[in-house]
Sequence to fold (101 residues):
Amino acid sequence: MGEQQTLTRADLCEAVHEEVGLSRQECASLVERTLDLIVEALEKGETVKLSGFGVFQVRDKRARMGRNPKTGEPAAINPRRVISFRASQIMKARVHGATGA
Fold:
């Protein structure tokens, strides 16, 4: 098994630059603005659906009792908002096919 690669914002900007032909600065602005729009929608509690990619949703988790993993002592877990991602069937099929399974 090889070394795991990470796709970064810089990689996205470079890919847009090579595909679209805009300047690197314009591509960086485009990628940043796209990510900002996604984050702004999630901050408002909106669902972000990217067809063929997946759905980002904000969920409210209720307060509950948990435990400290080090000591085993009971501990209260405060209510919080979490982001969940559900991949589209198209993405699942592509990723599954890429594994050779």
User: Anything to note?
Assistant: The helical segments are 9-20, 24-43, 89-98. Strands lie at 48-50, 54-61, 64-67, 74-77, 80-87.
